[in-house]
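In practice, a research group might receive sequence data for several interacting partners and want a quick structural hypothesis before committing to experiments. The following worked case mirrors that situation: the sequences arrive first, and a predicted assembly follows.
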Amino acid sequence: MIVLVDMDGPLADFEGTFLKEWKRMFPNEPHIPLRHRRKFYFRDDYPQRLLSKVESVYLDQKFYPKIPPIVEGLEAIREMVVLGVNIFICTTPLSVYKHCVFEKYAWVERHLGYDFTKRLVLIRDKTLVHGDFLIDDRPEITGVLKPIWEHIIYDCPYNRQIISKRRIMRWRNWREILGV
Amino acid sequence: MIVLVDMDGPLADFEGTFLKEWKRMFPNEPHIPLRHRRKFYFRDDYPQRLLSKVESVYLDQKFYPKIPPIVEGLEAIREMVVLGVNIFICTTPLSVYKHCVFEKYAWVERHLGYDFTKRLVLIRDKTLVHGDFLIDDRPEITGVLKPIWEHIIYDCPYNRQIISKRRIMRWRNWREILGV
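A structural hypothesis for the assembly, expressed as tokens:
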């Protein structure tokens, strides 16, 4: 079995870190609590006038190292390795890739150990990758191919409108969903 | 049609740059001319006692930016884009990933433009990626899956022992090989 897992969302608390840093850096601007996030991209939820401030938060060189892991997610993928599942972390770099590509590798090494960096896949079009499942918080995933994998939604407030796909709730039900 | 192209070798002159830098940095050590290279990895061709010196050449932060493109390769993949081929640059980071992951993106942006960075795939196991062809100078490519793509050898002195696969000769015959 091959399981692809997205990084920001299912494994790394990108959203929570953004909100914390946003409130710290721009205390006088409005913020959107996590439970009220409705769109996948911050730029579609935050007012247009705040766009450059929003980007300045997560494009900062120091942003990625501050992101804490989703502990249950790391436990789940470590367990999958033990179970003999071929697990790969499949992540799309930010459009401004300057800091994030190295930082993604460093993050995986820091939280999962060096050997896990060999399971990292940096790719924009995830439909190209083979797998039985892709666990991802993005509501819709498209690309040049019709995917082979089943897209399992990693439950977040901004993807609850998707009712046609199975979903993993904070990793509580991953064994049941993957059937292992 | 989906064509995957390896980066170091077919598109970026990693070998030539290594030799030039090796001779510059260690003028008193022996060197192996390109035409006498027999093994895919330098470490298997150069004497064991030189291993740390060999690695110090290509792990240097300034090494990757020095690599010139294989001009015919860049022309070929630009032409493929025009022909409607889905082309992706499929590359494995060095084990010591510190500098090379960012530098690979920067190299593609510098020589092929920003939009081409979206076609970059950083992956260790290329058997996971869908494609009709993979153009790669590595003699054998294995991983968790039996690949879907046909491996087209990018001709280099160290892969001439492979006679069972079709081969691209410095990009002169790519149209004939891919049938476009």
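Before designing any experiment, note the following. Chain A touches chain B through 26 residues (CB under 8 Å). The longest strand of chain A covers residues 86-91.
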